[in-house]
Design goal:
single chain, 336 residues, alpha+beta, L,D-transpeptidase catalytic domain-like, SH3 type barrels, 2 domains
Length: 336
């Protein structure tokens, strides 16, 4: 009987030991799984240009340009690497979510911005900040620790996200089209909400004088058109360069009427115009009065800058953009 009790005790200890070992092994397995989860979270990094997939599904074939094409005694290109960088930035901002807004002060309709303390006068004789953004048609951006320290101007059409969405006069924003956080008076913001998906992008290249439209489907971007364009020329006091940056498509006009330089007299119209910043539109070939009918093509397209900030296209291509682009889903990216 004594021998049986000892045998039973040894057997019980062995069973308990095995359970302890199994428990330790299970815990190790659990730790491995948890570590794997943390490792997976760490791998969810922001996209870079190398992550962006671009394919071609050309929908507008007229005046189509190749990736590289001759121009006089040089070769012009579509800068796909630079375009991928911009698309990665847009995709990252969309994936982060948040409440979107657009800075808006077209023709100073929301009030003229106050003069910044360290302003400069540019070659057009206009007040600008240290970044070259003009006071006219812009919004004042204040430092986040003081609503009286005017830091810079925010360009009409820039995208931002709302950080502080209370009902006070000053709203705290984080830049999408610009860096850092600022306070901005509420009247200069158009609120787009938190369900934004940007899956249509128009890229304008001021160096190569071309334009391309891209549409996102799933995880890939598809090129729909590759065309010549003519951007804004630096010719004070009336003609301005097309500004670089990321802008929202804010409104569209079947006819955008324009005036003679230095006058309020109507000079003509530009067809199928999509406005993205200040008086900057993507539009067709300008029609000068007394002519009334649309002009399809101009030999100046794809050559050198010569417009008043706008981006000229073949009129049928501008109609393609006009019909395809939608507010709150389309941005215009201007690169150099």
């Amino acid at each position: 009987m004594k021998h049986f009790s000892i045998f039973f005790l040894i057997t019980l200890l062995l069973i308990i030991g095995c359970d302890v070992n199994r428990s330790e092994e299970n815990n190790k397995d659990t730790i491995i799984v948890i570590d794997s989860v943390f490792q997976h979270k760490e791998e969810q990094r922001e996209l870079t240009a190398y992550d962006i997939l671009i394919n071609k599904d050309i929908k507008y074939e007229k005046y189509h340009l190749e990736d590289e094409y001759p121009y006089k005694d040089t070769v012009r290109i579509f800068q796909w690497d630079k375009i991928k960088e911009k698309l990665a930035h847009i995709d990252n901002e969309v994936s982060k979510g948040g409440n979107w807004a657009v800075i808006s002060n077209y023709k100073n309709l929301n009030g003229e911005s106050p003069t910044i303390s360290d302003y400069v006068r540019n070659e057009y004789g206009r007040v600008s900040d240290q970044y070259g953004v003009e006071r006219y048609q812009s919004a004042p951006l204040y430092t986040t620790n003081s609503d009286t320290v005017h830091a810079r101007y925010g360009r009409d059409g820039w995208l931002a996200k709302i950080i502080d969405s209370d009902t006070t006069e000053m709203i705290k924003v984080s830049g999408v089209s610009f860096e850092d956080e600022y306070l901005i008076p509420k009247r200069y913001l158009v609120f787009w909400g938190d369900t934004i998906k940007i899956d249509k992008v128009v890229v304008v290249d001021v160096t190569n004088q071309n334009i391309t439209s891209l549409e996102k489907r799933g995880d890939e971007w598809f090129v729909l058109s590759m065309n010549p364009a003519t951007t804004g020329v630096h010719n004070p006091p009336y003609a301005l360069e097309t500004p670089l940056g990321i802008f929202a498509v804010q409104e569209q006009k079947q006819k955008m009427y324009y005036t003679k330089d230095g006058s309020s007299e109507l000079a003509g119209y530009a067809p199928y115009a999509s406005r993205f910043t200040n008086g900057g539109y993507i539009h067709g070939v300008p029609v000068q009065y007394p002519r009334q009918s649309i002009i399809e093509w101009s030999p100046s397209l794809g050559t050198t800058p010569r417009s008043h900030m706008c981006v000229r296209n073949a009129s049928s291509h501008s109609k393609f953009i006009y019909d395809w682009a939608t507010v709150k889903e389309t941005v215009v990216v201007v690169i150099d």
